[in-house]
What does this fold into?
Amino acid sequence: MTTTTRWGIVGPGRIAENVVRDFVHVPGAEVTAVGSRALDRAQGFAQRHGIGTAHGSYADLVADPDVDVLYLATPHPQHHAVALEAIAAGKHLLVEKSFTATVAGAQEVVDAARAAGVFVMEAMWTRFQPAVVRLRELVADGAVGEVRSVQADLGVAREFDPEDRLFAHELGGGALLDLGVYVVSFAQMLLGDPDTVTATGSTFPTGVDAEASLLLGYAAGRSAALMTSLRNALPGQARVYGTEGWVDVLPRFHHPATIVLHRAGAEPETITLPPDGTGYSHEVAEVHAGVLAGRTESAVMPLADTLAVMRVLEEAAGQLGVQFAEAPPTP
It folds into this structure.
């Protein structure tokens, strides 16, 4: 029985540079190829990381018979077309967040994955951080009673540059798809799918969202108050409120090492559980194990959750007057 998964990297950008370094912490997961629209970029990435094959197009990487799993790290609107091509070729996928640029695009990818029986997962590394895994265990054990509310924020100060991907509408720029996905996914993980979404914020001259504050409403008065921004830095902290206490997830909450449990009537309990490597290893390990076991999705980051998060992001963006589209296939 095989114990190895062979990976290809689609898009050798900044996030891929970080993720590929963590493969050393996942025995049996091997990066064998990389693909870019520019062959020299693929070759440079391959040389830096000791990867055997460099492709000058995404299509060639998708067709590579020596690749089992693709890590898709292109800009958000490009995920849809490449994912569909990869699924048609029988490849398993780890797709960077945000999963796609639109709910319709995400649904199409999910439907194709389920029909083909391949493993597909959104690369929401937060859910696999050891400290967050412990948080979920505590909540499930009733450590803070019934969860009533979640607060989370994530923002950075970026000078507006219309040439930068973060501010380009055609590349899915803006705060929501790049940073807001973390706060929304965190709330969805703990509270489920919201009944209402209310958003306020502002936009950049390029038409993408600059900042957003979201209030998610749930049955019986439960709520999530979330903030994201590219205009100004935010603490990057999260707090989970229950009927019998709360948990602080210390900055930055989307890849924390430490949480603090506050039980009613007890002294705070600090729990520190650092990740392996820089933290990307845990999501890679989830895909690796899932593929070897013949599963088609993750129980920790299921496709239904990805769709729920995309619906919130699209609704919030729409309330700010922002709409995105999936990019056409690229060579």
Notes: The CA atoms of residues 111 and 303 lie 10 Å apart.
